[in-house]
Write a structure and sequence with these properties.
- This is Pili protein.
- InterPro entries: Spore_coat_component, Spore_coat_U/FanG.
- Residues 100-199 form the Spore coat protein U/FanG domain.
- Residues 191-212 are annotated as: Disordered.
- The structure is a single chain.
- The protein has one helix spanning 35-38, and strands at 2-3, 6-7, 10-13, 21-22, 53-56, 65-80, 84-85, 88-89, 92-109, 113-116, 139-142, 149-150, 165-169, 172-176, 195-196, 210-211.
- It is mainly beta and 212 residues long.
- It starts with a strand and ends with a strand.
C-alpha cells in the first residue's frame, strides 16, 4: 500500500498463519497443502468463499494517512469431483482459463508514539550530599511527520503542583527532580515545561525519534 512518498509492505497468505505466503506474479496451488479442503472448497456444490489473509511487514515508519493498493487476482481450477483412485479420476471440474477480479487493499495509519524509559537508581549513600547526579534517557518513537511534545508528571509525592518531586520511605521524603538535557531546567508535564520534538538529542524534528 502507498501514498505519495511512503510505502507499506505487506504479504498475502493462504491461511491464518504465515506458513503459506502468496507471492506476487507467482501461481499458488491451494490443493496439495490441504488449504482447499480446510476452506471447504471441495465439500459439495454451491458458491464457496476463499479467505485471504494479509499481514503488514514491520519495521518501516510512515506518515499518517490512508494507504491503498489495487490487487489483480486471477484463479483457475482443476479437481476431481467424481470417483478418484490415485491419479485417476472419473469426473473432473476444471477451468484452466484464469478468472480475474480486483481487490482493493486499504490501511489507515494514525499518529501515535511509543515511549520507553528505564528505571533510574541513585544508588546508596550515608547522607544526601553523597548522592551523585544520575543520567538517564527516555526513548520516544512517533509516527513519521507527527508533531509532539513529551512531558514528565510530578510523580506521586510532589511538593505542590509543579514542585519538586519526592521519593517516600515510610513517613520520610527525599526530594529530587528531572531536568531537560544536562541543564537545570525542570522537565514537567504542562506548557513550556514539556519538551518539544525539535529539541531531541537524537533525530530532532517531527516524528523522527526522540531521546533524552
Amino acid at each position: 500500500c502507498e501514498q505519495p512518498g511512503d510505502v507499506i509492505g505487506y504479504t498475502v497468505y493462504g491461511n491464518n498463519t504465515t506458513g503459506y505466503p502468496i507471492n506476487r506474479n507467482t501461481v499458488f496451488d491451494f490443493g496439495p497443502n490441504g488449504l482447499a479442503t480446510a476452506a471447504g472448497l471441495l465439500t459439495g456444490p454451491g458458491n464457496k468463499s476463499l479467505p485471504l489473509y494479509l499481514g503488514s511487514i514491520t519495521g518501516s515508519n510512515v506518515a499518517a494517512g490512508v494507504y491503498t493498493e489495487v490487487l489483480n487476482l486471477a484463479w483457475s481450477w482443476d479437481y476431481c469431483v467424481g470417483l478418484g483412485v490415485g491419479t485417476l479420476c472419473v469426473l473432473r471440474d476444471k477451468n484452466l482459463t484464469p478468472q480475474t477480479r480486483t481487490l482493493t487493499v486499504t490501511m489507515t495509519v494514525t499518529n501515535d508514539c511509543q515511549i520507553t524509559a528505564p528505571a533510574i537508581s541513585f544508588g546508596s549513600a550515608p547522607v544526601i550530599s553523597g548522592f551523585a547526579t544520575v543520567t538517564g534517557q527516555a526513548n520516544v518513537s512517533c509516527t513519521k511527520g507527527s508533531t509532539y511534545t513529551v512531558g514528565m508528571s510530578d510523580g506521586q509525592n510532589p511538593v505542590g503542583v509543579g514542585g519538586r518531586r519526592r521519593m517516600i520511605s515510610g513517613t520520610n521524603y527525599l526530594a529530587y527532580d528531572i531536568f531537560k538535557s544536562a541543564g537545570t531546567t525542570r522537565w514537567g508535564s504542562v506548557g513550556a515545561a514539556r519538551r518539544d520534538s525539535s529539541t531531541a538529542e537524537i533525530n530532532p524534528g517531527n516524528g523522527l525519534g526522540y531521546r533524552r
